Amino acid sequence: MARSFEAWELGLENPLFIAGPCSVETPEQLEETVAGLVKQGVKIIRGGVWKPRTRPGSFEGVGTIALPWIQEVKKKYGVKFAIEVANPSHVKQALDAEVDILWIGARSTVNPFTVQEIADSLRGVDIPIFVKNPVNPDLALWIGALERLDQAGLKRIGAIHRGFSNFNDTTYRNSPMWQIPIELKTRFPELPLINDPSHICGKRDLLFEVSQMALDLDFDGLIIESHRDPDQAWSDAPQQVTPEALGEMLRKLKTRTINL
Ligand code: PEP
Ligand code: MN
Fold first, then answer.
1. Which structural domains are found in the chain, ordered by start?
2. Could you name the domain of life of the organism this protein comes from (predicted)?
3. What ipTM is given for this predicted complex?
4. Which of 3, 34, 119, 176 is deepest in the core (most CB within 10 A)?
């Protein structure tokens, strides 16, 4: 690749922590979860609005009606908010709602047409955007998506390692295949790279060890799913943790700079 990605200020802290529900469900669920996370020191919230589910018939996100709820918690709690976008209409709505950070999901990263459409819809816009690895272990496809955003003029680009789907692995929902993000980091040392232990693990009891591994490997941060009542979550229930459990876990992680 001709140019390397530039370093940019990740935000409020390094390592960067983003936490929040897999999906925004109701105004009450969002507010209670955010209030709990803020109490634990989290400053950047994630929450899916449009959900790319593997099989039809699953909950596919509440959609556009969640955007005013997000604006409300941003105002009330002073947090930044990150959401997934999968097409130009999502981008437009997210920008209109003054969402702070965008990400491209693993099922979108595999499709160059989709990524290009998203990139084109962001020309002239300065917003941080993260690209999850594609579901398949294809480093070139991941890099290609990052390049499409770079070529559209985005300056604050980052990568999220969420593991790779597989048929056989019974330990992880998505195999970490650490060598792939390590190779990405080796090729692009300035590109911020964060880890998503929630989608790698698929169950909450593995979150700590995967998070610690990522920090030991010098990842730049973590994005973790947290819900006020994880077992009742409308998507990804087994891997979500309460804000209190998340805070406890973050405080146990060994890193030079976390001060929650
Ligand atoms: C998510 O972040 O909730 C999500 C759908 O993740 P992924 O794109 O990694 O499957
Ligand atoms: Mn999820």
1. 82-252 (3.20.20.70)
2. Bacteria
3. 0.99
4. 34
